[in-house]
Amino acid sequence: MKTLLVKMRGVSKAPPVAQRDEILLAFVGSSLALGLVAMLHGLCLENTGLPLIMAPFGASAVLLFGAFKSPLAQPRNVIGGHIISALVGVSIYQIVGDYPMLAASLAVPTAIVLMHASNTLHPPGGATAFVTSAGGAAVHSLGYWYVLTPSAAGSAIMVLVALVVNNLHRRHRYPQFW
């Protein structure tokens, strides 16, 4: 126990507290991004039958607007992570078939490896791989269209909103890198 306490002396007790204006921008940015994706989802679904929204975008919004300085929240990571993970998920489903536990247990680790290899690690991408490999008939019926919409198109819209909102604050700079 004493060794553990000695090792922890150099560790900060808590992360820095976000300022009110940063919290407000996170609220506004995530509301705008997810609202825009949801609005366009309705139009896209009505006109093409293709969705534009998926659950992993909620986690992407947390990173894009609540932790936008994180390497995991940069444009290449958000867009690339979702695209790679969707490609992996759809491909694994095509290979494995309707065995969701097997598909998910192969798709998520494969997506992690490929995101690492391409320097596009984005944790919500793991959820994208999971959804595309083990999702229901509605997801599987889209096949590789799921890579384009919702994965690529939806994540691009969210990044575009982040580019605007995250740079409204005078002390903010987004992205940190491309």
Q: Give the percentage of residues in beta strands.
A: under 5%
Helicity, in percent?
Answer: over 70%
Q: What is the number of helices?
A: 8
Q: How far is the first residue's CA from the last residue's CA?
A: 43 Å
Using only C-alpha atoms, the radius of gyration works out to 18 Å
Shape: globular
Q: H/E element string?
A: HHHHHHHH
Runs with pLDDT <50, length 5+? none
**Strand pairing plus helix content: what structural class?**
mainly alpha
Q: Could you characterize what this model shows?
A:
With 178 residues, this protein is mostly helical. Helices cover 70% and strands 0% of the residues. The protein has eight helices and no strands. α3 (56-66) runs antiparallel to α6, α3 packs parallel to α8 (145-165) and α5 (100-117) runs antiparallel to α6. It is globular and about 50 Å long.
List the helices and strands and how they pair.
Blueprint: H1 2-8, H2 20-48, H3 56-66, H4 75-96, H5 100-117, H6 124-134, H7 137-142, H8 145-165
Short structural description:
With 178 residues, the protein is mainly α. Helix content is 70%, strand content 0%.
